[in-house]
Amino acid sequence: MPETGGVSTPGQPLPDVWFTRDLPVLRAIARLVDEPKHGGAPYLLGSVVPASGLPKAEVIAAAKALASAGYIEPLTNHAGDIVRITAISGEARRLAGLWPTPQGEWDRLVEQLTARAENAPTDVERARWRAFADAAVAVGPDDGALLMSALIGGYVPRAR
After folding, report:
1. In total, how many domains does the chain have?
2. Is 68 inside a domain boundary?
3. pLDDT, tens digit (0-9, with 9 covering 90-100), for 16-72
4. Where are the beta strands (DSSP E) in 43-150?
């Protein structure tokens, strides 16, 4: 991507900041908010700076972007600057890895089935687990993620 002095070239997409700035800050916030140490008390934005490993200016920019997207609930001062983070959304918990995603749970299921097939104590059990693992692979990750989404969300469609 052509850039000069940190300024993007007109007509070109802006540089991606999700993986380099916003997601690391979201993960730092999620770790802090999820810690039972302070009983879920609001965290000062200044606490996020060392937890993220990013410069303060980048943490401030990321916090503004995360707040505008609804991932975090900020408290602001009279000037409108974010000073504390009071909570994170469910989607933020999924993105940070605190809560499961359907795709991740499907991958874990397939991994477990394969491991059980390889480590089963008898040939009969090994064949059963292998058949289950093969069926899961045949279903595929897209339909598997839909199934896991239903299971994670507590809804399993009834048979017709």
Report:
1. 2
2. yes
3. 999 999 999 999 999 888 776 755 566 788 889 999 999 999 999 999 999 999 999
4. 43-44, 72-76, 82-88
Do 61 and 121 share a structural domain?
A: no
Task: Domain of residue 16: give its range.
Answer: 3-89
- pLDDT tens, residue by residue, 108-134: 999 999 999 999 999 999 999 999 999
- 94 found inside a domain: no
CA distance 96 to 23: 8
The helix/strand/coil state of 152 is: helix
**135, part of any domain:** yes
Q: Rounded to whole angstroms, how far apart are CA atoms 96 and 128?
A: 35
Reduced 3-state DSSP string for 20-32: HHHHHHHHHHHHH
Q: Quick check: is 96 in a domain?
A: no
Burial class of residue 45, CB neighbours in 10 A (0-12, 13-18, 19+): buried
Q: What is the DSSP letter of 44?
A: E
pTM here is 0.69
Residue 16 has a pLDDT of 92
Q: Are residues 10 and 57 in the same domain?
A: yes
